[in-house]
Write the structure tokens for this entry.
Amino acid sequence: MAMLVIRVVVAVVVLVLLLALGSRAVDVHQLRLVAAKYNVTSIIVFGDSSVDPGNNNLLDTNAKGNFPPYGEDFFNHRSTGRLSNGRLATDFIAEALGYTTIIQGYLDPHKRKADLVHGVSFASAGSGYDDLTANLRNVLTISKQLEYFKHYKTQVKQMAGEQKGEEILQNAIYLLSMGTNDFLQNYFLELNRSETFTVEQYEDYLISCMARDVKAMYTLGVRRLVVVGLAPFGCTPLIKTLRDDTKCDATFNSVALSFNSKLKARLAILKKSLGMKAAYIDVYNMVDKAIQNPQKYGFSETSKGCCGTGTIEYAGSCKGLSTCADRTKYLFWDAAHFTEKMYKIIADEALTSVIESLLN
């Protein structure tokens, strides 16, 4: 019995890691068999622009990308609101599991209700763990995202029936990806929180906000949670331009590493105290490796984005601008967000290691 419990726990953790970031050269058939074995039903997403498929299209904010050249490599070249040239990691997650090729935004007026049982994203570009971060951009705070989640739960049960709906929600994988905006929009660039907190104090404040959010999720029935760490945001073209430097900003990156360390540690505590399955995803290391060794990943440009000059344009300031000739050679799509290829590379590395662990 003990061995069976261990096997179940390991398999669930493997699935959580699998689902965090997407798919490439993996055994998709094997993946889907494991997902079915452990009743993985859907993927439900909270966060910022890294996982927002277009919820901000319905909001009065400039933090959106529902216009060209965004979506240049999406299906039918549609500008859906994803701040990339194509799909996000969460879209690849859904595809790898065989649910659907994309994860829909909860606020998408064209979403098919029948698809909601396979997952949905409540994420909002510009959001963060700190509600002030979202309020500065008039986007969805995490508390508002969770409020919409409550409505979603009711809808799922209405569509699938009370018992089946509860099963779908209990066996879903929940993903939380945010934090960069808290530091860039709300601390270092606009200085809102820097007037109140030292950077270490702000890290701690954000961690307390994260813990509050995870506890709220648990109360709402979340039992399998993936939390994505910060990427090396000191390497974004925008930061390099503002700092007038060709190198990654070491101070910003050290903050990302420090925050990630605290995030991982607190998540481990929450996992134990709440009795939930939880996993931390180290995106920092994945992106850093691609920046340090671009040839290995097929990149020739990691210092600027593909849109416009690639140095400062993102979201509204990228609207209607020309793009680079070969997006597959670029790590960044605009001055702040990754290309579809980078999202796939993150997925590749995560899934490869997980599949190796699974097969061993």
Q: What stands out?
A: The longest strand covers residues 43-47. Strands lie at 43-47, 119-121, 173-177, 224-228, 277-281, 301-305, 330-332.
